[in-house]
Amino acid sequence: MLLAVSGGADSVALLVGTADVASELRLRVEVATLDHGLRREAADEARSVTVLAAAKGLPCHVQSLGLRAGPGVEARAREARYAALEALRRERGLDAVATAHTASDQAETLLMRLSRGTALRGAVGIQEARAGLVRPLLERTRADIEAFLAEQGVAYVTDPMNADPVHFRTRVRKDVLPALSRAAGFAVAPRLAAFARVAAEDEALLSSLADAAFDRLRLEDGALDAVGVRALEPALRRRVLARLVAEVDAAVDEATLARVQRAVADGATATLGRGYLLRATSGRVRCVRQTPAPAPAPGALRLERAGARGALEGTGWEFSVEPSRPPAGVYGLGLGEGTRWPLTVRTRRPGDRVRMNGGQRKLQDVLVDLRVPAEVRATRPVVTDAEGQVLWLPGLWPPTASHGAFRAFLWAAPPGSSIQRTAAL
């Protein structure tokens, strides 16, 4: 185990306490102390950690991170710190990094997130453990830690940054938590930390249920079934939609989720970040580009007779006129003696109409009824005869299974399939 020790009370207690039980628990323990390069005192603090580790018989590694002060320094320092600790853990062949976060840290984190507005996931706060990382002091308060060090007679340093009121966490630590404890009549930090542990258990269960629902509702084109999404309980629906939005790296915040949920309920569209829209139309919920680059209209494919074949440019569809019914994975249309050759495969055009049992209907209306997403309608192939009559919408209408006596069959292989590969098999 690699102990992350800064020289402050919490991490010094982690070092001392772990060293005392390492032999009994058969732990291989080493210490890491990092100089972020932000304070002159950090070098002296690193030396004090080295001395204490040597006194406890533990190897100690000192690393300088060389950070510069400026905007986002806290986040940059945290990222650099964990990256350095993980790299050292791997290099030394140790099972986990141990940090000295306490119940007081957990309570502060919880209050900070609640004040900014958070869902249950944010209330989880600091995780007790994850892959390669453990926090063994998370159930102990800072008061417990300081009492332990006083009993052991071990000194520690105090980082002046922890007392700087410019930081939100400092204000929560110095002002909010003491005031809340006075109002309650008891120390609230352990109870807030206990709530975070329970929230973590609840969040883990809800997340697993949401993952299962997401996988169940996922359609072949990557969209979600809109009816199924609407039928979910609100807690699951919110998580499922958050996962869908996160797939396009859009912000998953309260305002965005509110817009998304309204769009799903109304069968409408919501604006996301990063140039995306969420559309809940045509029976599907999906994220699409807000301003896609206009694609050139695909050219037409002309099929003169049996044996003719080719691809419809720009769509990924392949077509072939064959003497037999198509195999699995390829759509087919039976062609009888009355077929008016040549056949043309193209995309939709203004004024296209489809002849159906009840008369003729606009092709646009048929595509809407068939729940074809608006963003892909322009790339769906349309098969017409020599007189321009729409005969077929491959994979949509009429049914893929044709019955009766036919002289030939028009095969249609969708994107990702191939007539050539099918014939070879």
From TrEMBL:
<keyword id="KW-0067">ATP-binding</keyword>
<comment type="similarity">
    <text>Belongs to the tRNA(Ile)-lysidine synthase family.</text>
</comment>
<keyword id="KW-0547">Nucleotide-binding</keyword>
<dbReference type="InterPro" id="IPR014729">
    <property type="entry name" value="Rossmann-like_a/b/a_fold"/>
</dbReference>
<comment type="function">
    <text>Ligates lysine onto the cytidine present at position 34 of the AUA codon-specific tRNA(Ile) that contains the anticodon CAU, in an ATP-dependent manner. Cytidine is converted to lysidine, thus changing the amino acid specificity of the tRNA from methionine to isoleucine.</text>
</comment>
<feature type="domain" description="Lysidine-tRNA(Ile) synthetase C-terminal">
    <location>
        <begin position="343"/>
        <end position="411"/>
    </location>
</feature>
<keyword id="KW-0963">Cytoplasm</keyword>
<keyword id="KW-0819">tRNA processing</keyword>
<feature type="binding site">
    <location>
        <begin position="6"/>
        <end position="11"/>
    </location>
    <ligand>
        <name>ATP</name>
    </ligand>
</feature>
<dbReference type="InterPro" id="IPR011063">
    <property type="entry name" value="TilS/TtcA_N"/>
</dbReference>
<dbReference type="InterPro" id="IPR012796">
    <property type="entry name" value="Lysidine-tRNA-synth_C"/>
</dbReference>
<dbReference type="InterPro" id="IPR012094">
    <property type="entry name" value="tRNA_Ile_lys_synt"/>
</dbReference>
<keyword id="KW-0436">Ligase</keyword>
<dbReference type="Pfam" id="PF01171">
    <property type="entry name" value="ATP_bind_3"/>
</dbReference>
<protein>
    <recommendedName>
        <fullName>tRNA(Ile)-lysidine synthase</fullName>
        <ecNumber>6.3.4.19</ecNumber>
    </recommendedName>
</protein>
<dbReference type="GO" id="GO:0005737">
    <property type="term" value="C:cytoplasm"/>
</dbReference>
<dbReference type="GO" id="GO:0005524">
    <property type="term" value="F:ATP binding"/>
</dbReference>
<dbReference type="GO" id="GO:0032267">
    <property type="term" value="F:tRNA(Ile)-lysidine synthase activity"/>
</dbReference>
<dbReference type="InterPro" id="IPR012795">
    <property type="entry name" value="tRNA_Ile_lys_synt_N"/>
</dbReference>
<dbReference type="Pfam" id="PF11734">
    <property type="entry name" value="TilS_C"/>
</dbReference>
<dbReference type="GO" id="GO:0006400">
    <property type="term" value="P:tRNA modification"/>
</dbReference>
